[in-house]
Amino acid sequence: MGFDEEKGYFKVRDMSQAEFGRKELDIAEVEMPGLMSCRDEFGPSKLFKGVRISGSLHMTIQTAVLIETLEHLGASVRWCSCNIFSTQDHAAAAIVKARTSAVFAWKGESLEEYWWCTNQMLTWEGQPGPHMLVDDGGDATLLIHEGVKAEKQFAIDQSKPNPDSTSNAEMKCVFTIIRDGLAKDPTRWTKMAEACVGVSEETTTGVHRLYQMAKAGELLFPAINVNDSVTKSKFDNIYGCRHSLPDGIMRATDVMIAGKVVIICGFGDVGKGCAAAMKAAGARVLVTEIDPICALQACMDGYQVVRLKEVLPELDIIVTTTGNKDIVMVADMAKLKNNAIVCNIGHFDNEIDMLGVQTYPGIKHSQIKPQVDRWTFPEDGHGVIILAEGRLVNLGCATGHPSFVMSNSFTNQVLAQIELWTKKDSDTYKNEVYVLPKILDEKVAALHLGKLNAKLTKLTKEQAAYIDVPLEGPYKPAHYRY
Amino acid sequence: MGFDEEKGYFKVRDMSQAEFGRKELDIAEVEMPGLMSCRDEFGPSKLFKGVRISGSLHMTIQTAVLIETLEHLGASVRWCSCNIFSTQDHAAAAIVKARTSAVFAWKGESLEEYWWCTNQMLTWEGQPGPHMLVDDGGDATLLIHEGVKAEKQFAIDQSKPNPDSTSNAEMKCVFTIIRDGLAKDPTRWTKMAEACVGVSEETTTGVHRLYQMAKAGELLFPAINVNDSVTKSKFDNIYGCRHSLPDGIMRATDVMIAGKVVIICGFGDVGKGCAAAMKAAGARVLVTEIDPICALQACMDGYQVVRLKEVLPELDIIVTTTGNKDIVMVADMAKLKNNAIVCNIGHFDNEIDMLGVQTYPGIKHSQIKPQVDRWTFPEDGHGVIILAEGRLVNLGCATGHPSFVMSNSFTNQVLAQIELWTKKDSDTYKNEVYVLPKILDEKVAALHLGKLNAKLTKLTKEQAAYIDVPLEGPYKPAHYRY
Amino acid sequence: MGFDEEKGYFKVRDMSQAEFGRKELDIAEVEMPGLMSCRDEFGPSKLFKGVRISGSLHMTIQTAVLIETLEHLGASVRWCSCNIFSTQDHAAAAIVKARTSAVFAWKGESLEEYWWCTNQMLTWEGQPGPHMLVDDGGDATLLIHEGVKAEKQFAIDQSKPNPDSTSNAEMKCVFTIIRDGLAKDPTRWTKMAEACVGVSEETTTGVHRLYQMAKAGELLFPAINVNDSVTKSKFDNIYGCRHSLPDGIMRATDVMIAGKVVIICGFGDVGKGCAAAMKAAGARVLVTEIDPICALQACMDGYQVVRLKEVLPELDIIVTTTGNKDIVMVADMAKLKNNAIVCNIGHFDNEIDMLGVQTYPGIKHSQIKPQVDRWTFPEDGHGVIILAEGRLVNLGCATGHPSFVMSNSFTNQVLAQIELWTKKDSDTYKNEVYVLPKILDEKVAALHLGKLNAKLTKLTKEQAAYIDVPLEGPYKPAHYRY
Amino acid sequence: MGFDEEKGYFKVRDMSQAEFGRKELDIAEVEMPGLMSCRDEFGPSKLFKGVRISGSLHMTIQTAVLIETLEHLGASVRWCSCNIFSTQDHAAAAIVKARTSAVFAWKGESLEEYWWCTNQMLTWEGQPGPHMLVDDGGDATLLIHEGVKAEKQFAIDQSKPNPDSTSNAEMKCVFTIIRDGLAKDPTRWTKMAEACVGVSEETTTGVHRLYQMAKAGELLFPAINVNDSVTKSKFDNIYGCRHSLPDGIMRATDVMIAGKVVIICGFGDVGKGCAAAMKAAGARVLVTEIDPICALQACMDGYQVVRLKEVLPELDIIVTTTGNKDIVMVADMAKLKNNAIVCNIGHFDNEIDMLGVQTYPGIKHSQIKPQVDRWTFPEDGHGVIILAEGRLVNLGCATGHPSFVMSNSFTNQVLAQIELWTKKDSDTYKNEVYVLPKILDEKVAALHLGKLNAKLTKLTKEQAAYIDVPLEGPYKPAHYRY
What we know:
Number of strands of chain A: 15
Oligomer: homotetramer
Largest interface: A-B, 63 and 63 residues
Largest sheet of chain A: 8 strands, mixed
Protein name (chains A, B, C, D): Adenosylhomocysteinase
CATH architecture of the largest domain in chain A: 3-Layer(aba) Sandwich
Enzyme class (chains A, B, C, D): hydrolase
GO molecular function (chains A, B, C, D): adenosylhomocysteinase activity
Pathway (chains A, B, C, D): Amino-acid biosynthesis; L-homocysteine biosynthesis; L-homocysteine from S-adenosyl-L-homocysteine: step 1/1
EC number (chains A, B, C, D): 3.13.2.1
Distance between the termini of chain A: 45 Å
């Protein structure tokens, strides 16, 4: 397959950034020992020779190292971003320049463009589709499943999905694409789903969708839940956000965090990392929680557990980490201090009531700089500063998680793809959702210790027998919480 | 049942300490809101009226509040400690003085005395035994199971267990008790096991034994694994040890922790709490691990992950937290700095090679004060200071976990006992090991939030639907790691 | 001079504790490298041969190492404690047993006994008094100055100080001793002051008195302000209290600190150490301050700066560190939660309104254990737990600062005594207050680095010239704040 | 005076950035309460009406708020940056657009341009020069003093400074400017110095130069040492760097800091802030020191104190904070890990051996992006990544200290300028170096508490008398270290 923008083989913002991207890629490789070890272990045998992999995952420098790892193992790869703001244009360009993968991604896509890219990423000329999916948030999986659903209906009654039937702006795009494709090929998505060996998914949200589909018996191919590997969930969520939340806030606003009152909405893994970062920076940290266990954990770490609505006038910075919706409403923001900062590092932008803000009567909008907007309330002239338009602040305002964290997550992705591929002809994986075997989780961790000069102690045979674990692991029962 | 020491109804060190114990008990109640809530909720109905409960669990002030809670719910209670050093004599006296429970426990029992106490605690005059067991470490459960095993053998061939057949000092005691009892009643333990509705067990070690017995089909009654409730495992292990490790070291040695090099062997929950405490006190903390995931977590928190044998001469303080054996050997101690401190907060004293120390040729022993011993090596005259004779330093040298932590653990125990009792006639619990339902785990946490003025946020119906959880919980999937 | 209690040569509680004290002393020596280095450097020449040193300083194990250091340098030493509760009886006994010093000190002296001890400590048979004073809080210095004042008045009009003229309980004792002595020797204190080469004083309070006396022209001999050496003020106040505040609270109450709301009154060096310790233990920490600079520092470290009276019902633990009076009044305590803990680590017990508590109408007192008292308010039955009767909680409820910290403070004392003695015949020190030369302060620090394996970097000549400091120090200007 | 670039009235990069700069300026004002309070207090009286102020200080957004404050008080202002990389072009443009001040500054000046800008900033058409200087690093002061020196010599023997007489690239520029000016006006600098009421200087380096000049009797006008106000030195150095060091490293490299080994060279205030930030981010932190007191402080906070040369192969990140030269030499860098990061947050770029790097035989240079350069060693192909070409990493790679910190520093500057101006006709300030009175230092802090909702406690009269301080402050003796 060629890489020719004219022919629609890729679409990125600016190929002149490729050289800069390559330099950063080279540096990132040193920080991603897990992926480099995969290249060493599985590269020589070209395990993925002839395998088509489609990925929908923030098109960043770190993802570029993942893509090049998959390609190094022999795969053909097509890629798009899973967020309209998260593409690093120089990373996309570097990948295209190196002919490693087709890429359809740029920073600041419109929703229409976003779903066009997703569709392109799934389109393999002369093939039904990819052998495997790498997914983040589940949009690629969603498009296929919606396509299949529509094709079934179309086969029955020739009806097509109607974009006007939904108020959800994203689903309008999805329906449009599927509707328009039905004419050309009324079984395109069905064939694609059949050809698909499986998907590995890495977000809480995406995994939740998968479990719901599996429960409903609607999942069309096996799925590996990479999100719940310890080396993904704890590392990406806790350590990744601990790094990238302050990074995002500082790049966006340059605000002094020390001395400020910061509220972290949600004290799950993401919230734990965020709260730790803000406390470490000298802020006074408040926490909101619905779960009494997480709330008590917050207490034990010295955070004050409050209800958002009862502390609004005290707050300097609000961070949502819940994975739920309607956390900060425009009525809440109307009660904040002047120039209070509001941002989201959970998942979707509906944690913050963006629609409410945009339609608040008399509100004035001023873009300070890209991804940093000040909204001025008409009543008293106080403004709130919303980062990344309510989307993920670490991706929108900084560069996402650092390479070392992503190396953990992505090594899980690679091992999951290897699991799916090497066991595709066995009965191991049905159309269900699976977590990676713990021994692979431990392997991911082990591959990252050398870079940090950490030295593992080895169990003696007697000790292994005493605590009743295999000498080489896994060392913990499935329910162990770390 | 009377409470008359002459008649063997209790045995404690000194009843004159009862008043002091009562004062501390009154104060502890305020710090144990979970237990007090259980009294409020289940006390009026006398849920445990007529129920015999036998407990083997460190006889401390906090345990006294547990015992009085069980008694408040209507139970008859007999108690012993599960560790020869862990009894607080004033707590034991206060319980006996109040006639709340029979108690057989004092600080500094010999092994023979320890097992005598355990036997007394299981002995209910005119009854086959307790209805339920509260266990910590599994010694009560062990004694019953060994008894039943011996009685089966005795029924076959009249053979009796032979204390000389084992080099394990504890098993010698166990065999002696069982052997001596066979003459009096050759089916005592069998009847006791049959009468037993179940056991709730709260340690990793005890739970491990239970799972092994269940796996082998040898478990004689249902068991609830209280240890793996989040509000037990995380709170007791992390937050409890974070408090009580420095407490134990400071009371025992008065040593400045800041500036010292401390190694934490094992970075599980206990190790995490210990490492946090030592870092917080200004120490430089090294960590050893066998599990690459835990090792990588240690790295992410800034700890240096090393092998013990490679850093011995640098160390000021060694803390074992592994739950495994043979962690610090006498040959290791021979290479330490003068007056390096060695202590264990894992489980058994075999984490430290106490036998090796005691039998090292030419070594000299000097007791600085109770639970603080200096052993001088003959080669160069350097000494090591071993705390609590290698047993749990927080119990031996301080007063164990603080009341608030134990309130979490013990509220789990009470809810487990209630589960076992109220469902004893249903099929819910077989002779297997169960964890408490998550909704009860969340309840334990919720009962402790008020004391800390923490205010939970309530989900809206829409939000609960959005993330697909019941409005009132449980809020997390079973595999959630907190 | 003999050591015979009958003859009044010493008075301690229990000589049978001497052996235990000696063991602890041997261990403390290893933690006090500064003092041991002084022995190595100045011991062989017996620099203090024939020198009489009187000390008024908490008679603890660490002080015992100081005393033995002074004696090792050749001095004759007499000692008393500077606080009625702070003596460690086994330390006092060990010193007497070894005939290192005469000692007049025991835990729990009455005020009359306290001042009797102070008087004994200053009494050198056949001599006018000590050559030098080691003072802590300034009581020894006060007694001499009051004595001289009274003798002057007596010489004029034969009037004697009248204990009934003051409501201050301590001054009553001082006046009584002086009054009673005038008959025996009407110039005793005058001769003593004349014979005194100088005093080294180590507390903020004592130093403040000295500066006032010097300013008023009333100081009778040179004084070295050891308190303001960096290696005293920062180490003793910050690092010492960071260690010993949680130690005191835990030993006294066993209360869980994590999750609690702790207010630190005062954010000077002591407050900074205390706040850090409480935060590290998982508490939520509030701070009160009068000084805007210190208040802003508290903000920068994430503490909420509040006024005590506005947050009383939220508080679990109150710690006073101000060095001022009337910080927590009984009316404040009447508004606290049940079993809130109140303690002082500042200086005098007047930081807490003990008189107000003791005389509150209808209040009930219950001693939980020594140094832990619960006072129950009649209105609603809530109690507050006051530690160490309002005196220093780290000394009253634990063992004070750890040896390593005291080694810093006491090495300053030794170097100050050496300064005073070796320069007594020069004009260097007049009847003023002096701080130690910075090069000696740096020396104290340097003597403590080896124990911690810290390795200093050496300046090159070019670097020293570039920043314009001597190659061997001092490295900082006088006003440097560290 | 007009603002016409053609006429040389200002020179900035791009006036189109003015609007963006204004928006950031508006936001910064909210974070700079000290400066805004100065406007409220001194603005109405136009205290600086007719006063000419020349400033040489990083031309950032925060400085823009300072400039507008001076102008708000009535002053005419001319400005340049004190570092070739530190100008924020949008800040410069906003100031020019608003006609607040003439500005000569852009990011990435050459040395020749830098000194041209400095000269322009000092040039007041039709006037001998500024009434007062605001200086940072002392370059403006240096130029005037060198000018006067040259004019004196020129008056004697008509000799001119010779740029070829020095190998120092900066002094070449200084000499050239002075030489070229002598023809036009041989007493320009002499008249300027005479007209100058004083300078306020805010860096350690600049202050050091001033003290040297004062000591040598060469200082030509009074100087206020703003650097040693507590609200400057502690806040700017500790809290500022704690914020901006990780900000700079993350923006430049996106590297995961957690798990890495970071060495902080120097543990003064800057080093303390940097070490705290790196530790808080999860790094393992090593420290180097020459001063034993600072080294012992590092130990007490749990840092390992080492010598740089003994740990090179372990290091991931090196940060120099010493204010000295020759800290990291090229021979050291040759021994580092691949992609180790080297940066400086001390003062000059000579902390890192940039010349040695640039001239290392066979070394290869690759610019990753502006201010991020990789230097590859020929022996083994490992590279080091040097940030900001060895200059201040927080200014070169991020945006310097946050507004709130700079508000403290700059409020000191404003109060210093007010001191100089209002007392210019009194004898208060001679040609010496002065620190601000402590009461003003406390005032600066007080002006910043409201923004953080901190509430000061007020002393009662009795309490003030008890500790012998004025009711309204200052509250501490001059030598207090905070």
